[in-house]
């Protein structure tokens, strides 16, 4: 914070929702990206560069943050906290009970298994959680502890002190709401004309502001006929909304369009660290920045990292599979090819040949019955279906036998896919850091921060030493 007070200081900023146990690993990868780029730019420019992580505490989609995935019974399963309600309450107001915390911890440890680091991990997680913590409070404690030595500044977008600082710019957003919407729509039209697909769904009556009352967050629209800002139950003139901001600024919050603009108002931004989705939709916001008198900061794609432990590395070697193929989703193709090679191809060929013979013989029988014994047609069809079912049953039994005989080999393929390309996506979008903390301990974080990362669009592979 002291560094940020210096008149020549700038920030590298990025943000994400506050998932339980910090959510998918791409959140940590974004934080690492922010810290690394800030460090590099401070050394290059010779001015204070502060790494800032913007917690999206004002978001209300609890189903995006209330879960993580763990490995159980050789499958990836969702471990989640049931939402208190399905209302549109801000995540920063959503409380995690002690019972919910204990259940998450118990299920997590059960899935991870016991290692030499498990007790330390459990002890830390217990100390990090305070009864009736909100999602953002618990998230902040974890991140502040893990990255305490790197000067990272956390900002909760829903914090009341931050909201008070935003009041002057809320006035500008209210005054310019229609112009901002039109700017985004025009930019989308320009991009679509150049062959790009639009990312943001925005209507002509959008104000890009949320009203937050009674712990319900609702998007405001602009009613041209009444020249007013409207929710489902309330209508505000422009002046009334401006007065509301002055009296109760926490009742207004930003959406995906205005959040970047507010961020630029609050912070002297040198660069914005973005995930793939953000890179896409920020391209639609350039003229919106201009509309409120700003220049859009440089958008730097975050680092992409896949973590590879010794077990994964050994499986890749044994299966003669380049890691690039595993990460890009080719494990299933390799597995099916291997599985096909293990099957009794001669038996399958013989059954196919028998089906062809049945086709010919049944065709002749059917022709005779149709002309001479029409009452037997239903019986003949059932008989045919029965024989085919028996042949298919034989094939299925043969396949199941191969699966049993080679279960260990097939599971190695399956686990590689779960670890490196789960649910047909990157590891960092599904797995949580606790898997690796349990396996390698907390020393992996400073080791990770010492890596010579560069922002060249590469996908980094982190090869873990030890078991």
From TrEMBL:
It comes from the Bacteria. Residues 308-462 form the Bacillithiol biosynthesis BshC C-terminal coiled-coil domain. Pfam families: CC_BshC, Rossmann-like_BshC. Signal peptide: none annotated. GO terms for molecular function: ligase activity. InterPro entries: Bacillithiol_biosynth_BshC, CC_BshC, Rossmann-like_BshC. The keyword Ligase applies. Its EC number is 6.-.-.-. Residues 1-303 form the Bacillithiol biosynthesis BshC N-terminal Rossmann-like domain. Keywords: Ligase. It is an enzyme of class 6 (ligase). Involved in bacillithiol (BSH) biosynthesis. May catalyze the last step of the pathway, the addition of cysteine to glucosamine malate (GlcN-Mal) to generate BSH. Belongs to the BshC family. This is Putative cysteine ligase BshC. The gene is bshC.
